[in-house]
Amino acid sequence: MKLQLNKYILSILISISSLACSDNETPETTNQNLPEDENPVADTSIDIPGTIRDISSTTLVAEMGIGWNLGNSLDVENADKTAWGNPLPSQAIIDKVYEMGFRTLRVPITWGYDQQSTAPYTVNEDFMTQVQETVNYGISKDMHVIIDVHHDNAWLRPTTEDAPAAKERLASLWTQIANRFKSYGDKLIFETLNENRLLNSPEEWSGGTEEGRTILNEYHQTALNAIRATGGNNLGRHVMISTYAASTTPAAMDGLVLPEDDHLIVSLHTYFPWPFTGQEDGTANWGTDEERAQLENEFDYIREKWIVQQGRPVILGEWGAIDRDNTSTREAYMQFYVEQSLARGLLPIVWDDGGNFRLLDRSNLEWHFPTLAETIIEASN
């Protein structure tokens, strides 16, 4: 069902602003003006009610269009969400993304700088409204929209020692998010965690330890329980669940134990091969027969593990390649990536951070690399 904003809702959608720090820092939670004993009453005046259809997550992912990430925006590790150089989200930005042909919008969100660090872990009302307005920018274009818990790794440490307090706070966070969006239809998808991992550990990007993977599974279950407990449309909402650090390493893939639930989507990130796509001192070259075969093998591995063996759909929530003054090579890579992932039933959502992975100049509403964006859209068609 196509959802449209009425004139009243359009009149109250506003632009937003932000700031930053590093993934290794502990959030300085903003506690001012937050009630100590109860959550603030949600402002439902900008809700866009919808329907949760009786369809499988596989069917939902199959109908979703090629995706784009609003990276380094609401996920900035600071209460100022412009600190990493991007303007606040706006309808004009999402309109530009939609006009290019993207049909899925992923909105990464870091909550810790706008959430109390002690019980009842209340989220700042202004920030929650900002998140809701950003979701509405996509829903108003009839896009599928994904929201997550992104750079909150400092307090979501996957260790036995940290788990009790982290679970309590995570449950409160997802209860507040789920209640805020309870009336939204299945165009809105929740992603319980992003690249959750133990920061600066030796196994940070190689799949973690057995302890870390076990605690991560418990965090996913905690978040899912909180979402389902809010009832309404959230009883059947489709939810994305990620491996350790969203990695496709064998340890991470084998260590993910999905909760028993009919509406789950596996969430993975695959910047493959990293020396070409993101490594600081990497290579600008890619495209030999061997390199193409290696990327196909990566996709085959993902498909076999989740779609074939477990019957679960997969969203590649982040992928891309940084600029090394090699636009033609990146065009070839992006075309191949999109074609081969979609051919295997994997939905790719390109990472755009406004920096090294930039595609869209959000300040001037012009594409930095229009041929790259066009290549992605053409390949998806």
UniProtKB/TrEMBL annotation:
<keyword id="KW-0326">Glycosidase</keyword>
<keyword id="KW-0378">Hydrolase</keyword>
<feature type="domain" description="Glycoside hydrolase family 5">
    <location>
        <begin position="81"/>
        <end position="352"/>
    </location>
</feature>
<comment type="similarity">
    <text>Belongs to the glycosyl hydrolase 5 (cellulase A) family.</text>
</comment>
<feature type="region of interest" description="Disordered">
    <location>
        <begin position="24"/>
        <end position="48"/>
    </location>
</feature>
<keyword id="KW-0119">Carbohydrate metabolism</keyword>
<dbReference type="InterPro" id="IPR050386">
    <property type="entry name" value="Glycosyl_hydrolase_5"/>
</dbReference>
<keyword id="KW-0624">Polysaccharide degradation</keyword>
<keyword id="KW-0136">Cellulose degradation</keyword>
<dbReference type="InterPro" id="IPR017853">
    <property type="entry name" value="GH"/>
</dbReference>
<dbReference type="Pfam" id="PF00150">
    <property type="entry name" value="Cellulase"/>
</dbReference>
<feature type="signal peptide">
    <location>
        <begin position="1"/>
        <end position="20"/>
    </location>
</feature>
<keyword id="KW-0732">Signal</keyword>
<protein>
    <submittedName>
        <fullName>Glycoside hydrolase family 5 protein</fullName>
        <ecNumber>3.2.1.-</ecNumber>
    </submittedName>
</protein>
<feature type="compositionally biased region" description="Polar residues">
    <location>
        <begin position="24"/>
        <end position="34"/>
    </location>
</feature>
<dbReference type="GO" id="GO:0016798">
    <property type="term" value="F:hydrolase activity, acting on glycosyl bonds"/>
</dbReference>
<dbReference type="InterPro" id="IPR001547">
    <property type="entry name" value="Glyco_hydro_5"/>
</dbReference>
